[in-house]
Fold:
Amino acid sequence: MQRYGHFIGGSFVDPAEGEWFETKNPYTGEAWAEIARGTKSDIEKAVAAAEAGFEEWSALTPSARGKALYRLAEHIEADAARLAEIEVRDNGKLYAEMFSQTKYLAEWYRYYGGLADKVEGAVIPTDKGGIFNFTRYEPIGVVGMITPWNSPLLLLAWKLAAALAAGNTAVIKPSEFTSASTLEFMTLFEKAGFPAGVVNTVTGFGVEAGAPLVEHPRVSKIAFTGSDIGGQKVYETAAKQIKHVSLELGGKSPNVVFEDADIDAAVMGAISGIFAATGQTCIAGSRLLLQRSIHDRFVGRLLEVAREAKIGDPMLAETNVGPVTTPAQYRKVLDYIEIARAEGAKCVLGGKPVEDQPGGQFVEPTVFTGVSNEMRIAQEEVFGPVLAVIPFEDEADAVRIANAVDFGLAAGVWTKDMGRALRMSERLRAGTVWVNTYRAISYTSPFGGYKRSGIGRESGLEAIKEYLQVKSVWIATETSVANPFIIR
Structure:
């Protein structure tokens, strides 16, 4: 099997404790690589390397940093197919989606490469005479980045591209289930001419490697993507040292279909929202809100289309639904299906494990009707191919149901009424609202959540300021001495 060490200071190194763990292919169930099992000692080395790298990286002109990010983007595009294959081997998602992601993530590095030398302070016309006041933006320092297993490189790009453009350096702790693609990605930084230590990766488990990264006193910010429970723990730990944080957490997103919607388009949007990526996305439209007048007709059409989904090898172009990525997540999805049944929801599609596939981690696309918004299946993030269908009466009822959860990451609205589209986009408590589409993302548009779905934003112009701190500079232009006992 292939063996992957940590990437620290521009080189691959063995773990300090000499421990390794296996990573498995979710489709076959077979181990295919050994990953370094990091500890506090490895984190200490990586932070020291990032501090040394910060001195050189932050001293470069913003234009020079931008050019380095452009070079990196070229290497990403050239290596996109190989990186996608590694991600499929690690997380079991469809190659078609992973390849689309690995090609597209180059655009984040181009976008922020272009933005690097366009972050500008301001001259402030204060009310004080004889004073010149201006602001400047400065990098935060070493940023710890903790990434999940569902889209490792894309979700890393949302953090890393902006952080590097701003002049920071990074220590990355990827999920223990999907570390290989991040480690392979590290080789591109040397090819792109980045100074050693600017980007570092320590692999391992949350308690052994992730916690020491969050706790490290010389890590100035933590950028985390994961569950709301994990994000809460990160937030609590970071607060003890008053660290900067950005948290992109879970969701229980409503996909709201009104009676005037294009039914065929909305059906495809509902399927994309929950069965794409085997439902393992934070933006999954796991609550399908249907206006009662179209409920039965819509469900019938939805089931017709969903039954045609092909389950199987994620490397094949004809496959629509791959395996659940981890054994624990597989068991969790099946547990929630039983919880839904016990609470009285009606399973009208799926609801069982798939027995004729290797690896033992496949779940049928599952649809529940007769769901009330108070059920656990409607309130808690399942992170799997399980859809809860909830009827509503009118626009006010839809808003009430949609917002009555602890999460607020995304929402979908399907209607031909532009006034309604605008009203719903205003009233839904979510960081992203899609109208007549779903799962659309771009490096140009901010992404993040309300409520327990997180704080801060990734992508777009807003994201780079998540990795900068503003300084106000006051310069006296007159030589007169003010009364030292009175605030100026």
About this structure: The first strand starts at residue 2 and ends at 4. The chain has a mean pLDDT of 97. The chain has two domains: 2-249+453-472, 254-435. The longest helix spans residues 62-91.
